[in-house]
From TrEMBL:
Residues 1-21 form the signal peptide. Keywords: Cytochrome c-type biogenesis, Heme, Iron, Membrane, Metal-binding, Signal, Transmembrane, Transmembrane helix. Residues 134-154 are annotated as: Disordered. Residues 12-152 form the CcmH/CycL/Ccl2/NrfF N-terminal domain. InterPro entries: C-type_cytochrome_biogenesis, CcmH/CycL/Ccl2/NrfF_N, CcmH/CycL/NrfF/Ccl2_sf. Residues 143-154 have a biased composition (Basic and acidic residues). GO terms for cellular component: plasma membrane. This is Cytochrome c-type biogenesis protein. Belongs to the CcmH/CycL/Ccl2/NrfF family. The lineage of its organism: Bacteria, Pseudomonadati, Pseudomonadota, Alphaproteobacteria, Rhodobacterales. PANTHER family: CYTOCHROME C-TYPE BIOGENESIS PROTEIN CCMH.
Length: 154
């Protein structure tokens, strides 16, 4: 029960840091455009933090990207055009969920492909292991048995 205040404080700190990422001066007056901007920002990676969206990050580059997204929306771009503009400028790494087109299909398929290969190798290993005769069934030769008897007498 003593750790409850610490857990509550940690949760509040995380919520406050996420809530403070988008500054009040960045928020658009039009709620529909702001909702679109938040949706787009949630799918773009912060290039400084690399594991947060620009909507969650407090980095100055993330702020610049959030402002750029809002500028493009105010200029009349569609969501796809805004994302394409950002990707053209910063590369596909800026997407939190990369596309599956182009050479990326190889990366997406490599995980399941390697799993299937490993599963097949495991099945082959288990089947071959069951077919190999055990080495201890032949027993000892006469010479080995005599030597063992001599050693046990001592």
């Amino acid at each position: 029960m003593r750790c409850r205040p610490y857990v509550l404080g940690g949760v509040l700190a995380v919520v406050a840091s996420v809530a403070l990422a988008v500054q009040p001066d960045e928020v658009l007056d039009d709620p529909a455009l702001e909702a679109r901007a938040r949706d787009i920002s949630a799918g773009l990676r912060c290039l400084v933090c690399q594991n947060e969206s620009i909507d969650e990050s407090n980095a100055s580059l993330a702020k610049d990207l959030r402002l750029l997204v809002r500028e493009r929306l105010v200029a009349g771009d569609t969501d796809a055009e805004v994302v394409a503009f950002i990707v053209d400028r910063y590369g596909e790494f800026v997407l939190l969920k990369p596309t599956t087109g182009g050479w990326n299909w190889l990366l997406w398929a490599s995980g399941p492909g390697l799993f299937v290969i490993a599963l097949g190798m495991g099945v082959v290993y288990i089947r071959r292991r069951g077919q190999v005769p055990a080495g201890g069934e032949a027993g000892l030769s006469e010479e080995e048995q005599k030597r063992l008897d001599e050693l046990l007498k001592d």
